[in-house]
Amino acid sequence: MPFVRFMESTTGRVVRSVAGVAMVAVGVSLGGYWWALAVVGLLPLAAGLFDVCLAAPLLGAPVHHAVHDA
What are the C-alpha distances in Å from 31 to residues 21, 24, 46, 56? Predict the structure, then answer.
């Protein structure tokens, strides 16, 4: 699965982290109900920081791919 392989790569990890930071920043800066976006943004941020691909199980792959364990 090319998407899962990309998301498990170093570049994918950076993309997840940057997307999370961007969502948190937008949510905090806009305030109001946008705080919900900041809270949701913590998920991709944490996934990037802890190097897990949460989309992988939805696509039939393990959360932490064996490539990282090698």
Answer: 15, 10, 21, 32
Are the CB atoms for 49 and 16 separated by under 8 Å? no
Could you write out the DSSP letters of every residue in 6-45?
A: HHHSHHHHHHHHHHHHHHHHHHHHH-GGGHHHHHHHHHHH
Asked whether the whole model's pTM tops 0.85, one would answer: no
What is the three-class DSSP state of 5? Answer: helix
Tokens (6 digits) for 65: 């791919």
- Please give the chain's pLDDT, 70 residues, in tens: 788 888 888 898 899 999 999 999 999 999 999 999 999 999 999 988 988 887 778 877 776 654 444 4
